[in-house]
Specification:
Length: 410
């Protein structure tokens, strides 16, 4: 069975094709037989396409079109056509695609798992745009382009980033706000759920234990950052909230701030909602505090060169990360494993070391030697650590593909 995964972002599009045997998904994640990506960020009206196959073929193209909507449609269609045409071909025709899985950021309150896409589902994704304005519209665009290209013979599924967190108890999900707000759907939804779910299951495999028997804290640290507390295989607490802006300090996002600050800026300095949105989402976090960059690699480099603002940004980031890990552990009532994942979590050795440095009271101790090693899913805890600490390469596309396989099989 061939399962295609589409992961659409505001400035990029990633796609993968996985090939399952009749026995279904193996214990170890498969590598895709084909991977494609589109970068829309280099120049307005341009798209750079790259394709690589498991057998070593590759392709690079640049497309141009004056209209933003038109360039996205043109680029996605061209990318998908390389599956069955040209040097990167891996299937005979588009009819060889048995299912398509789409990552959708916000599924609101109604979706707890992957769902077959129909007009009702598309309408729900569209209606949730105000809660994820940078993500849901491009997720929906990817769905409609794929549907038009592959026609009705290929089932397509939406896999929601919020779905894994639908198990949050009300004590964790509800904000202490008026009931009338809660009735409007204002609650903690949580995000990065596909990554958190994959990493929880992968950690259980690596520990040779059932995920139902574990209490895990997952640290998804990229440009966007979130933590989850996973107990008995279910999310019971998380840091992102009503939107992906809540929680930890991030690359350019503030994370949690005193809401009174926003009231003050509106009342005393005339800020409107657009200014606040831009400042909190694009000009805060590491970038805002350092005045340099939202990229952790640049922050660490500047800090090591003696830049005081970079050091200050790093210190705030680590303080909030440590506090968040301790809070998630409190929700769990103990800890059986800590996982670092995503770009920063997988590659920033100093972040992992500093995050755990003052958490010895939780039984955490990082091995300096293991922490410096590179590549693959690996333990970085010392022999003295009472709790295993793992670095896991998140495989959101694989998680989506396996869910689609299960739906088609059933």
């Amino acid at each position: 069975m061939n399962v295609l995964v589409l992961n659409a972002g505001s400035s990029s599009q990633k796609c993968s094709l996985y090939r399952f045997s009749d026995e279904g998904p193996p214990a170890e994640p498969l590598d895709p037989v084909w991977e494609g990506a589109i970068d829309f960020g280099h120049s307005e009206g341009q798209a750079e396409i790259t394709v690589e196959t498991a057998s070593g073929e590759s392709l690079r193209e640049t497309l141009s079109e004056c209209d933003r909507t038109a360039i996205r449609k043109l680029a996605v269609e061209r990318l998908l056509e390389t599956l069955w045409k040209g040097p990167a071909q891996v299937i005979d025709s588009k009819s060889a695609i048995n299912a398509v899985g789409h990552r959708v950021v916000h599924g609101g309150s109604q979706y707890r798992e992957a769902v077959l896409i129909d007009e009702r589902v598309k309408a729900a994704i569209r209606e949730l745009t105000p809660l994820a304005p940078a993500h849901n519209p491009v997720n929906l665009a990817g769905i409609e382009i794929a549907q038009a290209l592959l026609k009705d013979g290929c089932p397509q599924f939406a896999v929601f980033d919020t779905a894994f967190h639908r198990t949050l108890p009300n004590a964790a999900a509800l904000y202490p706000v008026p009931q009338s707000w809660i009735e409007k759907g204002i609650r903690r939804y949580g995000f990065h759920g596909i990554s958190h779910q994959y990493c929880a299951n992968r950690a259980a495999d690596l520990l040779n234990e059932s995920v139902e028997n574990l209490r895990l804290v997952i640290c998804h640290l990229g440009n966007g950052c979130s933590l989850s507390a996973v107990k008995n295989g279910q999310s019971i607490d998380t840091t992102m909230g009503f939107t992906p802006l809540d929680g930890l300090m991030m690359g350019t996002r503030s994370g949690s701030v005193d809401p009174g600050i926003l009231i003050y800026l509106m009342r005393e300095h005339g800020y409107d909602h657009e200014q606040l949105n831009q400042q909190l989402n694009k000009a805060s976090g590491l970038k805002g505090v350092s005045g340099l960059s939202g990229d952790m690699r640049e922050i660490v480099s500047a800090m090591q060169a003696g830049n005081a603002q970079a050091k200050q940004a790093f210190d705030v980031y680590i303080h909030r990360l440590r506090s968040g890990i301790a809070a998630m552990t409190a929700s769990l009532g103990g800890l059986d494993g800590l996982v670092f994942t995503a770009g920063v979590g997988e590659h920033a050795t100093v972040v992992r070391a500093e995050a755990c440095e003052r958490l010895g009271f939780l039984g955490l101790d990082v091995s300096e030697r293991k922490n410096m090693e590179r590549g693959g899913d690996r333990a970085i805890s010392s022999a003295q650590s009472k709790v295993p600490i793992w670095v896991i390469h998140t495989r959101e596309d694989w998680q989506i593909a396996t869910q689609c396989w299960q739906f088609v099989k059933d």
